[in-house]
Amino acid sequence: RQHCFKPGSQLLDEGGVCRAMYEEPIVKAFRERTGRDPLQIPNDDEEWMAFRAAYNTEYVRRVRELIRSTKPEVQLGVMVRGIGHGGPQHRGDPYRECLLGVRRWAKEGLMDLLVGDQWMSRQRTPEQLAEQVKLSVSQVAGTPVEVALEMAIFDADLGLISRGLPAVRDAGAVELALYQDTVFEDSTVQTGNDAWRELAGITEKYR
């Protein structure tokens, strides 16, 4: 992801705007509504961006409505990978990076929890993890929506994890999800259940 969320990559144009959602039904619908051809206008055309983003908003809205009509006690958390991954020009703007109207979703009450996505490795510092959370918090400021962080553990050691947890908490995350990737399997730190037992001891302090 650190490569595909760079301006000029497969996913983002040179201005850091998402290249996705050029499927024929979407292109046809835009032509019929506006009389303009998406293939002949810039990818970052505001009207074209908003048209594509509306599909994602409608999806989230329908999910919200379905939950409310069937299990109203269940909260809806939305994981957004664009926050914090893009280039410096629009870093932390999931609308431009992923065509996800997170700010709008929060204001309309379409979600309860915004889940940022990050990875933890020896190249990451606690401060960088906290910055990820702060970017997410900025997207839902002034609304009841809370922020969480999901992190894949790569080659991080347990010391970094223990330092990263309070940084993430203090930055405003109310929940943190860690999932196993390669670190334990490759014996970078420890292996199997021993590592997870030690990790459980670390995380218990921040519950």
Task: List the main descriptive attributes of the protein structure presented here.
four-stranded parallel β-sheet, 207 residues, globular, alpha/beta, 4 strands, 7 helices
Describe the structure.
Strands 1-2-3-4 form a 4-stranded parallel β-sheet, covered by helices on one side. With 207 residues, the chain is an alpha/beta fold. Residues 86-90 and 183-192 have low confidence and may be disordered. The protein has helices at 24-34, 46-70, 94-98, 102-108, 126-139, 158-171, 192-204, and strands spanning 77-80, 113-120, 146-153, 173-180. Helix 5 (126-139) packs parallel to helix 6 and helix 6 (158-171) runs parallel beside helix 7. The chain is globular and about 55 Å long.
Write the layout of secondary structure elements.
Blueprint: H1 24-34, H2 46-70, E1 77-80, H3 94-98, H4 102-108, E2 113-120, H5 126-139, E3 146-153, H6 158-171, E4 173-180, H7 192-204
Parallel strand pairs: 1-2, 2-3, 3-4
Helix pairs in contact: 5-6, 6-7
Shape: globular
Please bin the fraction of helical residues. 40-55%
Cα separation of the termini: 29 Å
Structural class: alpha/beta
How many strands in all? Answer: 4
The profile of the biggest β sheet is: 4 strands, parallel
Side-by-side strand order of the widest sheet: 1-2-3-4
Low-confidence stretches: 86-90, 183-192
Query: Could you state the order of secondary-structure elements as H and E?
Result: HHEHHEHEHEH
Please report the number of helical segments: 7
- Tell me the radius of gyration: 19 Å
Question: What share of the residues does DSSP label as strand, in percent?
Answer: 5-15%
What is the mean pLDDT? Answer: 80
